[in-house]
Amino acid sequence: CVPVYGGSGVAQQISELKRGTEIVVCTPGRMIDILCTSSGKITNLRRVTFLVMDEADRMFDMGFEPQITRIIQNIRPERQTVLFSATFPRQVETLARKVLNKPVEIQVGGRSVVNKDITQLVEVRPESDRFFRLLELLGEWYEKGKILIFVQSQEKCDALFRDMIKHGYPCLSLHGGKDQTDRESTISDFK
């Protein structure tokens, strides 16, 4: 098995691909980089028998639709394709219709069902009020356990990280703009 992903050295990944493998686990962007760089000399996708796409909805959210489409076009049509998605937006449904032959849909739980152990609260606030409200919520919840905060972009993640540190909250930031070593270290530290 060869992992092929950005944020870590491509030379090692290319070396492992050249030796041959039965399984490649990849991110779309890095796979396209390798395919384009090598014109198919390092690896090609013509012998792929099974294609598994996990978190297809998230890949579309992150703008990987062109890369996914290009990868699929390079794989032989008589493959078995499995697509996993937490949600099923129109883009994913369109892709599924294009790339799946006689698909079987397996739905776990109802559509839009939330884990019963999770409480979701939504507060609509002007941008200018959000950070101070976050500080209020942290005052209530900080001592009760670990907290994950999701933001819209890498830039907002970095800005929030700096603001949290300024306000005395020891925290970590994690996003795709950090190299793989930093991401792994952050995840390990959070655990």
Automatic annotation (TrEMBL):
Alphabetical UniProt keywords: ATP-binding, Helicase, Hydrolase, Nucleotide-binding, RNA-binding
Helicase ATP-binding domain boundaries: 1-106
One function term, GO molecular function aspect: ATP binding
Classification via Gene3D superfamilies: P-loop containing nucleotide triphosphate hydrolases
EC number annotated for this UniProt entry: 3.6.4.13
Main enzyme class: hydrolase
Record keyword Hydrolase present: yes
PROSITE patterns reported for this sequence: DEAD_ATP_HELICASE, HELICASE_ATP_BIND_1, HELICASE_CTER
Domain called Helicase C-terminal: residue spans: 117-191
InterPro entries on file: DEAD/DEAH_box_helicase_dom (IPR011545), Helicase_ATP-bd (IPR014001), Helicase_C-like (IPR001650), P-loop_NTPase (IPR027417), RNA-helicase_DEAD-box_CS (IPR000629)
Protein name: RNA helicase
Species of provenance: Capsella grandiflora
Taxonomic placement: Eukaryota, Viridiplantae, Streptophyta, Embryophyta, Tracheophyta
